[in-house]
Design goal:
With 457 residues, the protein is mainly alpha-helical. The protein is 71% helix and 3% strand. It has two domains: 333 residues, Na+/H+ antiporter like fold (Up-down Bundle); 43 residues, no CATH class. The protein has a two-stranded antiparallel ribbon.
Length: 457
């Protein structure tokens, strides 16, 4: 009887309270997404160094094809993950970037200056350090590898610290990583593209124009944007030679970021609909009446109109990206054979460039350049942050895992060079996460701000 009464009061069944709600909390937890990513990378390393190593590597080489009437695209499973599924990841990155520009930490110049300068420093110095080790070699093309920050991994480490982290630090690192992602996208667009098929590129331009016009005339159906963005823009870019992930970011920028119903209109309209619902005579049965069903549908449609399509998409795609796409990418890309012979080769220019670029370049770029600008009084740290927080953020920004692995596959065709880059990425990311965690763990919170959960995750 007590369970029935509690269910009636909360509106939730025991299945919802004991199974569905805990799963939802698990999915929305930023710490968990970082741990899932770490576990996937660790599993890839274990399998790559196990008796099943050959089978594990062969798994990603199976080919899959799509097409019709002789127009077929055939790629290995590894390529479909990197060129296809990762386009979904970049689409969400584009949504996050647009949200930050429209209504987040990047929508005002004053608020954006600190993470923007930190991100620029954190991209430029790692590239220069990499080139120092590889400038006169064919491996110079890997300069983009140590520029990237893994937002999921970095925030996962940060959220493990819980209340010890000021809210301003979480927001700062998120904004920095998003600007960093934008830099990585531009680097891929301009420096890591193959020969361009201008016919396919022009076709992609037509689809992009359709998306922009649709936004301007008020089309808000996310399925429409998905069909045109994937079936048109992404496919055209995939066949053009310009990396298809760029199409994903471009498509994200066309998703409407305005509500159709204002907060005041929504509040007033919702009260009217609730009054109508309460006035309906119930049928005292498990199902609602026809009129109640119509009112509930109006409430649902009204609630959708009060949300931006951009936020709806970002919220709904977060679990897919965090718990399926990124872990699958890590599983297929993080495998490195840690043999004695391989470990003896870590003193090669690619490893040194990537490792030093991430571990030293990121820290010097984020912490060093930001500190100099603060001393010059051009910018100031957000309330609640201090210099130790900034140093810790510099190390967490050196976790280049996902994006760095992605760019290493674009930079090198030689599998041996890719393996050397992977070693540099994994070793630097592991050290950076431990050092960054310890620095922030034993830092005192700065004045002016309490800890709390970041609204950006």
């Amino acid at each position: 009887m007590m369970n029935d009464e509690k269910t009636h009061l909360t509106g939730k069944t025991p299945v919802e309270r004991w199974i569905l709600d805990p799963i939802q909390r698990f999915i929305n937890n930023s710490t968990v997404s970082g741990l899932v990513l770490f576990s996937s990378a660790l599993l890839a390393l274990l399998l790559a160094n196990s008796p099943w190593s050959d089978e594990f590597h062969h798994l990603w080489e199976h080919e899959f094809s799509i097409g019709y009437d002789g127009n077929i695209i055939s790629k290995s499973l590894h390529h479909w993950i990197n060129d296809g599924l990762m386009a979904v990841f970049f689409f969400v990155v584009g949504l996050e970037l647009k949200r930050e520009i429209v209504a987040g930490e990047l929508n005002e110049l004053k608020k954006a200056l600190v993470p923007v300068f930190a991100a620029i420093g954190g991209m430029a110095l790692p590239a220069l350090i990499y080139l120092y080790f590889n400038i006169s070699s064919e491996t110079a093309s890997g300069w983009g590898i140590p520029m990237a920050t893994d937002i999921a991994f970095a925030l996962g480490v940060l959220y493990l610290l819980g209340d010890r982290v000021p809210l301003s630090l979480k927001i700062f690192l998120t904004a920095l990583a998003i600007v960093d992602d934008l830099g990585a996208v531009l680097v891929i667009a301009f420096f890591y593209t193959s020969d361009i098929n201008f016919t396919s590129l022009a076709t992609g331009g037509v689809f992009m124009a359709v998306l922009i016009i649709s936004n301007l005339i008020g089309v808000r159906n996310t399925l429409f944007y998905g069909i045109v963005g994937i079936g048109g823009l992404w496919l055209a870019f995939l066949m053009s030679g310009v990396h298809a992930t760029i199409a994903a970011v471009m498509a994200a920028m066309t998703i409407p970021a305005k509500v159709k119903v204002s907060e005041a209109e929504y509040t007033y309209g919702l009260k009217r609909l609730m009054t109508r619902f309460e006035a309906e005579k119930p049928n005292n049965k498990p199902t609602v009446t026809e009129n109640q069903l119509l009112i509930l549908d109006d409430i649902r449609q009204f609630s959708i109109a009060a949300l931006t399509p951009l936020q709806r998409l970002e919220h709904s795609m977060h679990p897919l990206v965090s718990f399926i796409i990124i872990p699958l990418f890590a599983l297929s890309n993080a495998s490195v054979v840690l043999s004695a012979e391989a470990l003896l080769q870590v003193v090669n220019p690619v490893f040194l460039g990537v490792f030093t670029g991430l571990l030293a370049g990121k820290v010097l770029g984020v912490f060093g350049i930001t500190s100099v600008l603060i001393r010059l009084k051009w910018i100031q740290l957000p309330p609640g942050m201090n210099s130790r927080h900034l140093l810790g953020a510099g190390f967490l920004a050196a976790i280049g895992f996902t994006m760095s692995l992605f760019i290493s596959n674009l930079a090198f065709e030689d599998p041996a060079l890719v393996e050397q880059a992977k070693m540099g990425i994994l070793f630097a990311s592991l050290l950076a996460s431990v050092i960054g965690y310890l620095i922030i763990r034993f830092s005192r919170r700065g004045p002016g701000q309490n800890s709390g959960q970041s609204p950006i995750s």
